Amino acid sequence: LVSVQGVQTLKLKDNTKTFSDVQPVRHWAVQGVAFVSAREIFNGTGAGQFSPDTAMNRGMLVTTLYNLAYNPAVSTANPFPDVPANAYYADPVTWAQAEGLVAGMDDGTFAPDNPVTREQIVSILYHYAANLGLDTTVSTSLDKYADASAVSDWARPAVAWAVATGLISGRSATELAPKGNATRAEVASIYMNFCSNILH
Question: Taking the model in full, what pTM does it have?
């Protein structure tokens, strides 16, 4: 894995981009989108757009995480039959699986087009932070959210860590929406918070 120092170098890149569908003032995630696109963690979706409200899928997610990790060399074989060797997410999937950050489906596939939930993305970042040797013991109560009981048992430590460290907040003052599909805008903002709050 890339060192924390290496990720901080990635933070210093400044390749500012603008997107027609993420305008200043008018979109809540404009800062997060600017952050991840300038640092080449995210790319746009074509035609000058970012598609902020599009659900993040598994292929996109591992690719952005791979970019955050500075595109490390891949030395293991891809274990998933539905990840073609020429897919843009092939190396990212292989790397993320080898590092224990993602797993396949029960049928042995990776399902790159499946959407990623909010609790899944913070769980992946939780394990990524642990792999980097960072402190993941910070926690907080989720009781202020009416849907706290909807957080999966396996995701609860990661979600409590993510809320405590400011990676995520509720979709409202009382709704955490852990099983809601994470949008590209939400993930962009989570990454900005991760770099600022965890990799500072």
Answer: 0.88
Alpha-carbon distance 36 to 16, whole Å? 9
Instruction: Supply 189's token pair.
Output: 């903002």
What is d(CA 35, CA 191) in angstroms, rounded to the nearest whole number? 9
Q: How far apart are CA 159 and CA 152, in angstroms?
A: 9
Contacts of 112 (CB under 8 A, 6+ apart): 57, 58, 59, 82, 83, 87, 89, 93
Tell me the pLDDT tens digit for each residue of 125-146.
Answer: 999 999 999 999 999 999 999 9
- Which are the contacts of 56, defined by CB distance < 8 A and separation ≥ 6? 115, 116, 121, 181, 182, 183, 184, 186, 187
Whole-angstrom distance, CA of residue 85 vs CA of residue 91: 8
